[in-house]
Amino acid sequence: MEKSTNMSAFLKNRFIRAILLSGLFLQLGIWIRNFSVLLFVMEQTNGDPFAVSMISVAEFAPIFIFSIIGGTFADRWKPKKTMIWCDLLSAVSVFTVLATLMFASWHAVFFAMLISAILSQFSQPSGMKLFKIHVPKEQLQMGMSLYQTLFAVFMIIGPIIGTFIFQQYGIYLSIALTGIMFLLSAGALLFLPADRAMEEEKEKTTVLQELGQGFKYVKNNRFLSILGGNFLVAGLAIGLIQPLGIFIVTEQLGMDKEFLQWFLAVNGVAMILGGGMALAFSKKIAPIRLLAIGMAVDAIMISVMGFSNVVWITLIAQFFNGLMMPAIQISINTMILENSDEKFVGRVNGIMTPLFMGGMVVMMSFAGVIKEFMSLTMAYQAAAVLFVIGILLVVPLLIKPNFPKQDQKVKIETQ
Length: 415
Prior knowledge:
GO terms for molecular function: transmembrane transporter activity. InterPro entries: MFS, MFS_dom, MFS_trans_sf. Keywords: Cell membrane, Membrane, Transmembrane, Transmembrane helix, Transport. The structure is a single chain. By secondary structure, this protein is mainly alpha-helical. Helices cover about 80% and strands about 0% of the residues. The longest helix has about 50 residues, at about 140-190.
């Protein structure tokens, strides 16, 4: 009864309702865009691998180039206004691409991915900053759990929705619907509480100076530095196994490649349940313990998948692997918010995100080579070892979770 009362009170938070509604529209727009562009490019190029890979480049490259820049501006600008403008500009860019697509070249679809991916690097850290401002500390983990569960749900239904829209209505309506979803997301953000008045700095600083301050802030905060190392290792582990799932299905289990959809579906369903479990335990288990538990279970399950050639054992391991993934993501995001000063949330997020994504993309690039050099089984054992290293990195935080946040009190000198 108490849990339902807490959840009811939590959902009465005006910020939570608005950000979840915005997230719903945004996820619809993103998945319709992603799959319509993917299927359209496949049609136009007869499945040319280079053209298909350019979609991923357009989607992920902005994370490395603009993440820290977007985080820095998120700390300079008003977060609500930033998020609304990013959604509006994304919608404008999508409708511009639609016009170009109709009257000029089909290659314009790549810009639909690129521009909105760039703008999301300004919007996402602003959203994290608003979580820090409007959600009480004791409810942060609950808020992150609910938000992550929304993403997990769309990992299952997003591809279905995107594929259905494209197959039924074609690329023009798919792109138009994407723009409409971004507009609806911006509309939902209007219901967010008003931005606070920005504090006037005693000494004016440049963007480069503030960017440098962000790196110093993370470096001087032992908690965040350790978490950054954990983030990088987790990205390396996930990046190593993500492209190899198809080989687990075909080589290890001896199944047809079509079985991959069920292999991935098990993971997706588990992630939804995992998000719900993380939400249920958010007030009972500290984020650092949740992170360690999640990485320990994933290390064991990944190792099992690497050795198993029995379908039901592999599917059980895949299920528990997916079940714990939200715990890892939610706990890291919660700890970033809990251990970052409000003035630095954008920059901390902008530094941490490329660590994870960078590790993941680098390992995805070398996963095939590693498989050929080490074997599929040993590649999965290597990923399991990386998760164990991640646990060892956070042992100091488990022993002494409340590090003095000395860096939050220290004035960082500007150049």
